[in-house]
Design goal:
Elements lengths: L10 H10 L3 H9 L10 H14 L3 H8 L6 H5 L1
Helix pairs in contact: 1-2, 1-3, 2-3
Amino acid sequence: METEFQKAFPLEKAYPFAKEHGLASDADRIRDMSIEWDRPYTSSVRRGFIIDLLAQSGLLPAFKETYWPYGLSEPGKAE
C-alpha cells in the first residue's frame, strides 16, 4: 500500500473519505475556508481541522487503518 510509508496525514484522501461518510458539507467548508497566517501553505491548518472532524465523528481510527497506517504507529501518533 502506497500510504503505508506516508508520514504526513494524507489530506487528499481525507476529503473524499469524509464525504463518503456523510460529512461532505464539513469537508467542503474546511477545503474552502480562508486561512490567514504567515506561512506560504495552508495544508497544515486544514489537516488539523479535518483530523478534528474525523475524530469527533468517530471516523479517525477507520481512516488511519485504511489510508494512513503510519498514524497507528508510535511515531505516527506523535505526528
